[in-house]
Structures are given as C-alpha cells and as structure tokens.
Amino acid sequence: MNAIFALPEASTQAVRVDGILAALVIVSALTLALVFGLLVSFAIRYRRGSKAKRGRLPEIVNREFEVGWTAATFFLFAFLFWWAASADVGALTAPANALEVHVLAKQWMWKTQHANGAREIDELHVPVGRPVRLVMTSQDVIHSFFVPAFRIKQDVLPGRNTETWFQATKLGVFHLLCAEYCGTNHSAMRGRITVMREEDYARWLSAQPEGDDLAHVGAKLFVSQGCSGCHASSSAVHAPKLEGLYGRTVQLSDGRQVRADDAYIRDSMLQPKRDIVAGFDPIMPSFAGLLDDGDIQSLTAFIRSLGQEHGHD
What we know:
Layout: H1 12-45, H2 59-90, E1 99-106, E2 109-113, E3 119-121, E4 123-127, E5 131-138, E6 143-147, E7 152-156, E8 162-167, E9 172-178, E10 190-196, H3 198-206, H4 214-224, H5 228-231, E11 249-251, E12 257-259, H6 262-270, H7 293-305
Parallel strand pairs: 1-5, 4-10
Antiparallel strand pairs: 1-2, 2-3, 5-8, 6-7, 6-9, 9-10, 11-12
GO molecular function, one term: copper ion binding
Domain Cytochrome c: 213-307
Subcellular location: Membrane
C-alpha cells in the first residue's frame, strides 16, 4: 500500500482532519453513486422503443421535490463547511498551557529554540499529550512547515510571524518537511520531530547545553541596541513603556485600536511610523536592516516577559 494511505494519526489535529476527509469522501461517493445510478436507470428505462410511461409529473410533486432536494443539499454542505472551518479556526489558537517553541526557517534548514534556550537544527523534541505552540518566521524566502503525521502545514514567511500548534498523541519519530518550493535544495530541507514521554522529555531538556533563553537574549539586545534609552521605566524620554504591553489593546493617534501581539511589536520595530501610539511623537527610528528575525523573536520574548494585560487602555 502507498505510504500516503498509511500515515499514522499522531496528533489531535490528525484525527479531526481524517474525520473530515472521510466524511467528504463518503458524501461524495454517495452523491456520485446516486447521480450515476439515476443516469443509468433512466437511460435503460426510457431508451428508444421502450414502453415506459412518459409524461409530466403533477406540478406540486415537481415543486416539492425540487425544494426538498435543494434544501437538503444546502444544509448538508453548510454543515460540512462549518465542520471543516471550525477545525481550521481551532488550529489557529493554541491552548493557554501550550509549550512555546520558536522556529526560524532558512535555506535549507529548520532552527528551533525551546523556552529555556535549548536549540536544535532540523529536529524538534516534544512531550506526548501536551500542546505545543510554534511561533515561526523565515530568514529568506517562503517556506512551509509540514508534518504529515500531524496533518499540520503552515507557511513560514519572511518579514512576519506565523503560528500553528499541535498536540502529539503517539510516541515516535515523525518527518518534518518543507511544503513550499524554496530553492535548489528544497527537497533536502527535511527534519524530524521526536515525541517523547513527559519524563523523558524533561530529562532530555535538562541535558541540553545551557544557554540564554529568548527573553534573556532579548534583554541584552534591548540594552545593546539602545532601546532602553527611551523605553526603560527609568528613562526620561517620553516613549511608550513596555511593562504590561503584550496582549494589551493600544490606542493609536489616528483613532484606531490594535492589539499588542507579536505582529504589532515586529511592525513597531521595522515600521515605527505606521502605527503611532496616541500621545506620542513619531520619533522612533526604524531598525530594519539592524535586527534579523532571530533578534526580533528575542526582543518580542523579552517584551512578553515584562507582563501581559488582557484589558483595554
């Protein structure tokens, strides 16, 4: 049997995707069988020379049949659309207790970093039964993070962050592929995800070389890049304070409101004059060309570590 039809269901997302696919295949097969069955039976019954009775059905029968068939198909396909769309929307937001892993794609490798600073290349170790949130960006061109056994695929774009999440349900090693043509060695951009028991994952994580986590790296960049001169709590410069910024609703000078998420923070570093915070002058310089994607991830993690608020200004 071709391996594509024997992929394991190794995540909660895989179960949902396979269920939707099975339902679509069954509905399509039944519809096809009904249409072709009617076509063949009518072709035989009403062939030239047959004595089958011909004539129009009563108008009320025609009308009721047409209305019933149209309504039935509409509600069936509306249900299928809602079912599939809800699964896709659910895949956009990771649970609050998810492990956060940062992924940096580049020609032609996957670089991953865990919350404690542990780094991997073309590999990712995760615990079974626990949701994992992936925050991803690309250093060069468009890539696509694809794990067939988990039924997840998410484009990884230069200049912005994208996210996806999964919860592994089976132990083992699973292929990680790039599903977007990204250059001459696209086919060699492969990796693997190792799903481990919780206690084995904890031992593996503690055995990794010590290194600063993203927030600590970001704190050093915050000072070395001069950000603390304006944004530190002790600064005399009239600039937005960052404590409690992440997750908060920010009022802009043009009347709009935006949520201070990863994308907003990234844009504020690279295009600071696009979204000016109400009450502040547009004096911040752009850091485009001065910060790479890894630096932006680290600075974002540092700002997030300063606290989150879920209310409004």
